[in-house]
Every structure is written in structure tokens, then in C-alpha cells.
Amino acid sequence: MSELTKYLLTFLISMVPLVELRGGVPFGIGFGLPTYKVLIVCMIGNMLPVPIIFFFARKVLVWGCDKKYIGKFFTWCLEKGRHGGEKLQAKAGKGMFWALLLFVGIPLPGTGAWTGTLAASMLDLDFKKSVIAVMCGVMLAAAIMTVLSLAGVTALGK
């Protein structure tokens, strides 16, 4: 596999919902790409969909709620996003920026830039503050995943 292909796959993996940079970083590091380049590629890939999610995801989900084949799934996504956002807001109070940052930054299943941005959109949070919180969360997740990936590569003796 060429080096360009490895970078492209690393970038694309980082754009995929739920997987995001949590999959892209170990992939790139596991293929022996330079760590700093992997981080840059993964963070760009993870952040690229954020404005689109913030401005259009809710509109698309609302549009699809009454459609025959996708309605139930879109309704479930809307309810999940609204419920998650309200739960996050109730716990965070005035510390919503930090709550969103940690929600995106701690690499657990169901958290990340996609989910965090959708929650921010559902709660009608300020775009600029939300993007900054998500970006900081992505950097935190990148740091955590880099440490874990490098430890894994070292443990496996590569």
C-alpha cells in the first residue's frame, strides 16, 4: 500500500461517524506513518464535517422524520440527540463549553465530534463557541489516542 493511500485512509477513517479520529490515529500510527503527520491528518478529517453537521444535520433529520423508509431511524436520531443534549446541559449548567469539550475529548463509544456537534446544534448553542469546544475536544482525544496507540505499538514490539 502506498504512503499516499495510507494517509488518505487515515483521513477518511477520521471522518466516519462513531469511529472518527479514535480509529484514524491507531490506523495511521500502526502503519508506521509519522505521528505528527497522523495527528494533523486525523484532526482535519475529524473537524471537516463539523460545520455541516452543526448547520444541516438537524434540518435533514427533521425533513426525514415523516419519510416511509427512514422516518423511524431519523426520529430516533433526533430524539437521541435532543435527549443527550438536554442531559449534557442539565449536568453542565453554565459550564457547557467544558462539558462539550470533555464529551468530545474523552474517547468513549458514542462520544466524539459528530455527536457533540449534533448535541450543540440541537441545543441551539453558539456556533463559534461550540466549534472551539469541539476542536479542543478533538485535540484532547488525539492526545489520548496517540499515547494509547504508541503504547500499543511499543507493547507489540513494532
Tell me what the structure shows:
- There is one protein chain.
- This protein has 158 residues and is mainly alpha-helical.
- It has one domain (3-155).
- 78% of the residues lie in helices and 0% in strands.
- It is built from eight helices and no strands.
- It has helices at 3-15, 20-30, 35-47, 50-64, 71-92, 96-105, 113-122, 127-155.
- Helix 3 (35-47) runs antiparallel to helix 8 (127-155).
- The protein is globular, with a radius of gyration of 17 Å.
- The two termini are 18 Å apart.
- The mean pLDDT is 91.
Using only CA atoms, what is the Rg?
17 Å
Residue ranges: pLDDT <50 for 5 or more in a row?
Answer: none
Number of helices: 8
Order of helices and strands: HHHHHHHH
Helical residue percent band: over 70%
What is the averaged pLDDT score?
A: 91
Alpha-beta content class: mainly alpha
Distance between termini? 18 Å
Number of strands: 0
Shape: globular
Give a quick account of the main beta sheet: strands, pairing sense, barrel closure. none
Number of domains: 1
Strand fraction equals under 5%
